[in-house]
Specification:
CATH topology of the largest domain: Rossmann fold
Helix content: 25-40%
Number of domains: 2
CATH architecture of the largest domain: 3-Layer(aba) Sandwich
Structural class: alpha/beta
Distance between the termini: 32 Å
CATH class of the largest domain: Alpha Beta
Order of helices and strands: EEEHEEHEHHHEHEHEEHEHEEHEH
Radius of gyration: 24 Å
Strand content: 25-35%
Strand order of the largest sheet: 6-7-8-3-9-10
Number of helices: 11
CATH superfamily of the largest domain: P-loop containing nucleotide triphosphate hydrolases
Amino acid sequence: MSIKVNSITKLYGTQRALDNVSFEVNTGEIVGFLGPNGAGKSTMMKILTCFIPQTSGTATVCGYDITEQSLEVRKNVGYLPEHNPLYTEMYIKEYLEFIAGLHHLKNVKQRIAEMIEMTGLQLEQKKKIGALSKGYRQRVGLAQALIHDPKVLILDEPTTGLDPNQLSEIRHLIKEIGKQKTVMLSTHIMQEVEAVCDRVIIVNKGQIVANDITSVLQNSQSQNRQMITVEFDKATTLAALKTIVGVAGAAQIKDNCWQIEANTDKDIRTDIFQFAVQNALAVLTLHKEEQKLEDVFKELTK
């Protein structure tokens, strides 16, 4: 078990940022830690990386207690905070050499070269950090988080400021890292979670409202609700469509094309075909919309 959180609570005065939160992250998992602004995501990450103390509760990272063995925790964790703190007057290699020295690494030059290649900093490596774009600064942040080869990687909004090409590259990098390490990341980009994460933990107002495998979470939220778009060759009516068992409503998108909402766990596409046959209609197109993680997120945090 890489991360184990047991009844963590964090108070800022009278504000309860985290409220009795418990979860586990297994070795080799990539877990998305999601929630609206102010839900407690960054607070939890700062607690796990020993930047701030919890008010109550316990947690371990790689078997080390975050309160009693914080130095051991830090040795095993790579952390990229939401607001990436960098020494902008330093050159990239100079900064990474400084970070390597903090970790007492051997073969520093070799490790820096590996990080520069891994994070795609080759073309910018001779620049000062202050001269870099926001996307490349994020890459430097990733490099410093990885340079000491940690077992656990905690990333708070890791793809902020990246263009679509950089975004794809960093997602691929995170997936590759996840084959050997435990990765916990927060983001507001739902497509990123769907593309990268094995499991999702959603927090709202300091409490966990969902904790499951991404695909299972999507299916569990949508099993009793279906949205189906169908186009017939001839006209029909709302009243006629509502005779199909399970149909709660329908909206006409354009001539002979309808978006049907059904509240049932039974797939009603067969019933729609039967309806068409009984009413001498031909089905030109039929599409069942898949539940998106973004819809699940909205439903759980509204």
